[in-house]
Amino acid sequence: MATNSAAISAPSAAEAILLRPPRSLWSNAWYKLRHDRLTMIAFGVLILLALLAAAADLLAQNVFSYTFEKQDLLHTYERPTFDPPAYLLGSDEIGRSQVVRLLYGGRVSLAVGFVAALVNLTVGIAIGLTAGYLRGWIDDLFTWFVTTLNSIPTIFLLLIFATIWQPGPVTLTIVIGLLFWTGISLFVRGQTFALREREFVVAARTIGARDRRIMFKHILPNILPLIFILAAIDVGGIILVESALSYLGLGILPPTPSWGNLLTSATSYFVRAWWLVVSPGAMIFLTVLCLYLIGDGLRDALDPRLKTEK
Amino acid sequence: MRNFILRRLIYAIPTLIGISIITFVIVRMSPGDPIRLFTFGQRDITGEDIERLRHAYGLDKPLPLQYVDWLIALVQLNFGQSFIYHQDAFQLLLARVPNTLQLAVVALALQLLIGVPLGVIAALKRGSWADGVIRVFGVAGHAVPAFWLGLILIIVFAVQLRLLPSQGMLTVGKDVWDIPDRLKHILLPAFVLSLTGIANYSRILRTETLDVLGQDFVRTAHAKGLRERTVVFVHALRNALIPVVTALGGILAGLVGGALVVEQVFSWPGVGQFTFQAAIAKDYPVVQAATMFVSVLLVISYLLRDIAYAIVDPRIKAG
Fold this sequence. Notes:
Chain A is mainly α. Chain A is 72% helix and 0% strand. Chain A has 14 helices and no strands. The radius of gyration of chain A is 25 Å and the shape is flat. The two termini of chain A are 42 Å apart. The relative contact order of chain A is 0.13. Chain B is mostly helical. In chain B, helix 5 packs parallel to helix 14 (284-312) and helix 8 crosses helix 10. The chains are: A mainly alpha, B mainly alpha. Chain A binds chain B through residues 144-145, 147-157, 159-161, 163-165, 236, 240, 243-244, 247-248, 263, 267, 270-271, 274, 277-278, 280-281, 284-285, 288-289, 291-293, 296, 309, and chain B through 14-15, 18-19, 22-23, 26-27, 29-31, 139-140, 142-149, 151-152, 154-155, 159, 210, 253, 256-257, 260-261, 264, 275-276, 279-280, 282, 287, 290-291, 294-295, 298-299, 302.
């Protein structure tokens, strides 16, 4: 008792550590992330890009005073210039403002990336969890389907789909989401396999918890941190695929601008205006790079197996 | 070993059936039927003729029966005639295979020759500036859109510097066996195609080499008084190279998918470009043949990878 009251009145340095509130996985990860400069920069850049894209309307009206479809046939193939600000990144073959089109294109590309990732995470987690937990014939069916899907190059499936149905942006997003879940579900299944035999799951089963409760309340929270890592990389991969598809003229179709289809038209006159090729690709590169760096940073912060390294 | 290979071969059968179902269904689900496409614009065709044609091609049968017919033809490598060229779809496709193969082989060689040393160097010089640069490259190489990099390289090397050709496999009029000319043409597309793999291998090899260098047998080798070089190259590296085999599956899938886009950028007359044009023109027999061909190729390469893996790492066979 005596030592206890002494500690409260004047804690020594060693005791202060003991008195510190316990760190959870998440607060620990956040602590690590805050001190990971590269990841924080990547976060910052990504948020900035998202804000710029979200504010496309505002910026186009007030800063550049240009709309994304406004043409000016007297000022085609303008080199990048500050005057007028609308030609900050040059103008295209019919005098449209490249910078304004990039802003709107970013809105589409980012939206497709994040929404499609949400779709494939939902599907991938649900299927992986079910197959890994229930095992038996459901798992056999799952393995067969995933092996089959993984053996067909996804770009071929997307190519066939896009040429047959000529989907709009929303359908395309959902389809990309529905084609890219195999990696996530394989990962979730593997983790579930290992977790379902652990004591806390057995204990939950012993007191009569139903399968669904065990899957979502006991197993899923344990996989969730690792899924965050996959999610960042996933969004990046989808943005790359969408841009490639749009570049081929099969994804997001003009007049809706996307970073990919801005490159399609730029290709046909790149001898005259190379700067029109540089900017959309640089935006894709920057966005995906940030996402991958965030993925790496999250892995360092969240994956307990890597604690010994570094 | 023989049992292992046999088991893997049997496992591949349901996968192949799955691929054929998907390839069949995705095309058959398309709006409009092939007979209408076939006879489009011919005014003297009556509804009765169309019915007869449909019967002749077996299109009036229920879908599962049509699938069986298609499967039987498929085993005989008969994918039907191309709607556009009016020649055997599979033969047309086969003619493009060597071109894609060239591209893929050169890209794979670049990946192994550049990616593996980069990863090992990064691990050996851990924490140095070289390690930093290689790690940044390991992430950046994945994030670059391949088609964009291709365009930039064309602008720099073909348009501005005029050092390399921008497209095709061979300068028109040159001899087919003009090797320097061919090398000039293949350099840019092969590099673009190999980039993801280089980045991939450099990352894998870095992690793996670090992992192996930390293990007991390496410490023992050091303790025996072996030279640093012997420890790294004879003891550590041999073990660190195992994942090169494992990663091959993903790498090959990346090459096949990536080739479709890269061939388009560089006008490389390969399977990818051919498939792309066929898809745009709705030439379904060609699209089906190409999808089946590429997928079967992947199944075979996964199979070979598993066998190679079992040879390098005997623990796998048991599992």
